[in-house]
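User: Hi! I'm working on a homework problem where we have to compare a predicted structure to a textbook description. Could you give me the structure for the chain below?
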Amino acid sequence: MAVMDSRPALVASLLGLSLTVLPGFLVSLSLPRLMAEMAFGTQASGMILLAYLLGLTLAALPMSAVAGRLGPRAGFRLGLVLMLVTAIPHGLPQNLEQMLVLRFLQGIALASLLAGSIGLLRVSTPPGSLGRALGGAGLFSAAIMFVAPFVWNGLAALVPSLSLEFALVLTPLVGLAWWLASRAPSEPQLRRFDLIGTLLSLLSIGLLIVAVPAITFLDWRWALRFLVGGLLFLALFVWHQSRRETPLLPLDLLARPRVTGAFLARLLVSAGLTLPELMLIAYFYQGWELSVATIGLTMSLTMLGSAIIGFLGGWALDRRPGLPLLPLGALLLVLGFGGLALQTPGDSGWLLLPPIIAMTVGRGAFEVACGWRLLGGSPRHRAPAGQGLLTLAEAIARLVAPYGTLLVAVLVDKAQLDQSLLVPLCLGVAAAGMLLAALLGLLGGRTGEVPEQSA
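Assistant: Happy to help. Predicted structure tokens:
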């Protein structure tokens, strides 16, 4: 497939990637208001997030296959339509069951838009510029998330309907991205959709996902049944995919060490970032008596800082493809999480600054390097499949990590340890996973090849 030096198509892909974070961000802003209006219990927010992650996990591979089959332009536009159609109705009055279904569909839409946006970005990025394009997408997304609360608060004072607020924010951006994508190639990949592979994917991943909470909430025999069934369907899925030229499960990409290393590293780092995040805000608030405003400002600044580091890291990778930025980023995350684990609540708040800076720099460097390595190590027309792997790793990690936190809590209770050790232990486990990710990041990393040429 020829490389297009098309700035409109590239801007469309960057806008599409930024739109992948905006609907979820708007939902997080509106969720307290919705829960108050609909009288949902506190457990409802966890169920709503779970439905979203389930949709994202199950749709990661099938929707990446759909985007690859449709081609860059049509695959991207499909993601835009699905995202808009599932985001706007979120503000309508609905019961919990309807909201769970809608969030599940939003997870599917996100998987589609991610695959379509990356497919468009890959064919519209000039040679030697993939790192800057990925870093620019992260920076653009961070800027939109930084501005979104101010826009949202302004609209909330003028517009009474949540759905109308969503429409006013999203529709112009989707329309602009749709128009810019008209310059993109429309070359569809003329192959049949793998329906059998999709069914096997849903069965294997679904059963394995259910097996994790079943260990906690059901009898261990049920967990074992789900686990064995999931592994059997997974083996059948892999066998079926190995016989196909362009498989739904991208075994052709996973056969490349740099792709496999990036996928596994992404899985571990995503789990490590998710493991303690639910407890850190309360940890900072109670242990150091930091105000909610201070914590919120710190989180916003770290988000922007990571995005800036990601852009600079992408620029560096374009100039020096052999730069070991992925393991370096993971090691900085190890230092950051390890430093937080060694902190004692009540110490000077300034002592938190070095580990937070290490985490900010490490996260930005790791994320751009991981995307650069996996997507740069894949053929251009297989970019949606590569993004499907990244989406799958992220979604599985976010689904499983909370149960890891629960397991640490159970171990602390069984060992009769002080409950104050729970957060430091979770931080230590996260740091250990990131150290393993740094080692995995060495697989096929220093090839000295420009990503676009390595495909």
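For your comparison, note the following. The chain is about 80% helix and 0% strand. The first helix runs from residue 7 to 19. Good luck with the assignment!
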